[in-house]
From TrEMBL:
Keywords: Hydrolase. It holds the Pfam family Ser_hydrolase. GO terms for molecular function: hydrolase activity. This is Serine hydrolase family protein.
Length: 182
């Protein structure tokens, strides 16, 4: 079995966010919990991800949004602490990675964004008009991470305010990762 670990960004994902809707509709989905969703520190959030990974005995696919993408990149660059020999990260869907180095970004402790290639399949999904990251920056990170890149057009920060609902296109990309993992 494969567990889908949902890694929200700042303020957690609200009720209209596609991550929340996926968690509610997918029995194998588990949300990574953080002690402070509004005042993140990289150390504390990495510990939260490590704790979530340690609690899973199955193979894992990470589904991250916004600051959750930066969290996954830092966790991977740190050698994926907490990963046991019985577990394996089989892929990651990184949606709307933010420009953590941008002036005024609310979580500067996540800067700079790691650019270490991932050791598992990754899909990066970005938007033309994301207020938190220029599409060229997202594309450059995808290249550095050796990830598949998808530009979904003008969908803002690809969150609850983007009007995506259950976001079928995103689920299709997740299904591709799940198929590759089998």
């Amino acid at each position: 079995m494969i567990t889908i670990l949902i890694c929200p960004g700042l303020s957690n994902s609200g009720p209209a966010h596609w991550q929340t809707l996926w968690e509610q509709s997918m029995t194998q989905a588990v949300r990574v919990q953080q002690a402070d969703w509004d005042n993140p520190t990289r150390t504390a959030w990495m510990a939260g991800l490590t704790s979530a990974v340690s609690a899973v005995s199955d193979e894992i696919i990470l589904v991250a949004h916004s600051l959750g993408c930066a969290l996954v990149a830092h966790w991977m660059a740190a050698g994926m602490p907490g990963l046991s020999g019985a577990q394996k990260i089989r892929g990651a869907l990184l949606v709307a990675p933010p420009d953590v180095g941008h002036t005024g970004f609310p979580a500067p402790c996540f800067s700079p964004m790691p650019t270490v290639p991932f050791s598992f399949p990754v899909k990066v999904i970005a938007s033309d008009d994301d207020p938190w990251c220029d599409i060229a920056v997202s594309r450059a990170w995808a290249e550095a991470w050796q990830a598949e890149f998808h530009n979904i057009g003008a969908k803002g920060h690809i969150n609850g305010e983007s009007g995506l609902g259950d976001w079928k296109q995103g689920k299709d990309w997740l299904s591709e990762l799940l198929s590759q993992a089998r």
